[in-house]
Amino acid sequence: LELDDEAADLAGKTLDKVWHVNVETYPIEDEIEDGSLNLILCLDVLEHLVDPWSVVKRISPLLAPGGRLIISLPNIRNWKFIRRLLFKGDFHYQDAGLLDRTHLRFFVRDTAIELAECGGLNLAVCADARQYKPFEFRKLLLAATFGGLTDLIAKQYIVVAERK
Fold first, then answer.
1. Whole-angstrom distance, CA of residue 94 vs CA of residue 60
2. Are 121 and 61 contacting, i.e. CB atoms less than 8 angstroms apart?
3. Which of 25, 34, 67, 143 is deepest in the core (most CB within 10 A)?
C-alpha cells in the first residue's frame, strides 16, 4: 500500500500488486484473506498516520500464525531532541528526521511496543534500528552502561511482533 504517486509507480514496476491508496481509509482487509500473510512491513509509516493503532488492529489479523509485523518508529526520547528542547526550547519541525513536519505521532520505546501489540500480537523484538561499529563511541557507552542508555541513544526503533 502506497500513498505517494511516485513511490507507487516505482513499486508497481517490481511488485505483483500495489494499492495506491491511503492505508487509514482503504479497507485492505476486504481484499486480503485473514491469516494469509507471513510478513507485514510498516517502515517509517505509522508516525505519519492520524490513528496508527486502528491500522495495526486492522492489519494484524491478516498475519498467519507465526507471521510477523515489523515496524520502525522514531524515538522522541533521543538525547539530541531532549537537549534541544530542554536547553534551547527548540521544537521546530524540519524537512526530515525526528521532527519531520509530516510526523503526527511521537513514540518512545514503551509506546512503540504498545502500538505493535495493540492488534493482539506478541512482542518478539524491540531494538535500536542502528547497528554500531565495534569501537564506535555509542557502542562503548552502551556497553559501559549495560544498555542503560539505549532509550536515549536510539534515534529509531525496530519493533517485531508475532501472531500467536
1. 32
2. no
3. 67
DSSP per residue, the chain: ---SHHHHHHHHTTSS----S-TTTS-GGGTS-TT-EEEEEEES-GGGSS-HHHHHHHHGGGEEEEEEEEEEEEBTT-HHHHHHHHHH-----BSSSTTBTT----B-HHHHHHHHHTTSPEEEEEEESPPPPTT-HHHHHHHHTTTTTHHHH-SEEEEEEE--
With CA atoms as reference, report the closest residue to 45 among 109, 125, 102: 102
Q: Which of 20-24, 46-50, 87-91, 143-147 has the lowest mean pLDDT?
A: 143-147
The dihedral through the CA atoms of 164, 63, 23, 72 has a sign that is positive
Least confident interval from 41-45, 109-113, 142-146: 142-146
Is the Cβ–Cβ distance between 77 and 135 less than 8 Å? no
pTM of the model: 0.89
Q: Residue 107: pLDDT above 90?
A: yes
Q: Please say if the pLDDT value at position 162 is more than 90.
A: yes
Give the whole-angstrom CA distance, residue 23 versus residue 143: 40
